Amino acid sequence: GIPIPCGAAVSSGREAADQAWNLGGVAVIKAQVHAGGRGKAGLVRLVGSPAEAEQAAREIIGQTYRGEVVSRVLVEEKLNVEREFYLSVTMDWRKGRPVVLASSQGGADIEELAKKGKGMVMQSLDNLELPYYKAVEILTDAGLKNKTLTGAAHILTQMVRLFREAEALTVEINPMVLTVDGGLIAADAKVTLDDEALERHPA
Fold first, then answer.
1. Does pLDDT of 41 surpass 60?
2. How far is CA 5 from the centre of its chain?
3. Which residues fall within 8 angstroms of residue 123, CB to CB, at 6 or more apart?
4. What are the DSSP calls for 10-40, one per residue?
5. What is the pLDDT of residue 141?
6. Which position among 15, 86, 112, 137 bears the catalytic label?
7. What residues pair up with 91 in beta bridges, in sequence order?
8. Helix, strand, or coil here: 183?
9. Residue 137 a catalytic site member
């Protein structure tokens, strides 16, 4: 599987406070919307207590961001981040085939980096398969090394598997973080499904 932070999605300030208490008080509150760039819009907030979590959730829930009303927030543990990366499996409509994207940089500015073509590695997928050795090659080109490289390669092969089995259009982790204790965690992720495949993959 793909490691993720501890947390839960909630729909009220009171629930956010309860979840923050479960996490020890310090938590991150994230608006649950499809569009990227939430952090710059103030829809991702670090809080230091259940009371702050409740206030942040109340302020975020009900806002409209890029045409979508925020109805839920994710309350999750704060990660001690050493580095951030970017991993994605998505359809390249110009080429008519899926591609893997990887970068040694991740976070809110990844879209701008991609537009400029800086630090982004792209590799077409053949037959929706990505052998482990190929994942290692892609991530080596992206600048990953040592245990971070091998751990991220395993995660990338799982992402391709999810992309194939769910008939997805995008499986994205941004950022994938390396924590100070050496763990790799998908701090934020997005999966976009093909509408025509929904009947074959009921929730």
1. yes
2. 11
3. 99, 100, 134, 138
4. ESSHHHHHHHHHHTTS-EEEEE--SSS-TTT
5. 94
6. 86
7. 98
8. coil
9. no
92, 68 contact by CB (below 8 A): no
Backbone φ/ψ region at 140: left (φ over 0), alpha (ψ -120 to 50), beta:
alpha
Among the listed residues 23, 135, 2, 22, the one whose alpha carbon sits nearest the alpha carbon of residue 79:
23
Q: Which amino acid is at 81?
A: V
The active-site residue out of 167, 172, 196, 199 is 172
Mean pLDDT of 93-97: 88
Residue 79 is classified by DSSP as P
CA–CA dist 170, 146 (Å, integer): 27
Q: Where are the beta strands (DSSP E) in the chain?
A: 7-10, 27-31, 44-47, 64-65, 68-69, 73-76, 81-92, 97-103, 120-124, 168-179, 184-186, 189-193
| Six-digit token string for 142 | 């992206």
End-to-end CA distance of the chain: 19
Give the separation between CA 198 and CA 194, rounded to whole angstroms: 7
Q: How far apart are CA 152 and CA 168, in angstroms?
A: 20
CA 155 from chain center: how many Å?
12
Active site residue 132: no
The answer to whether residue 107 scores a pLDDT higher than 80 is no
Q: What is the pTM of this model?
A: 0.88
What pLDDT sits at residue 112?
62
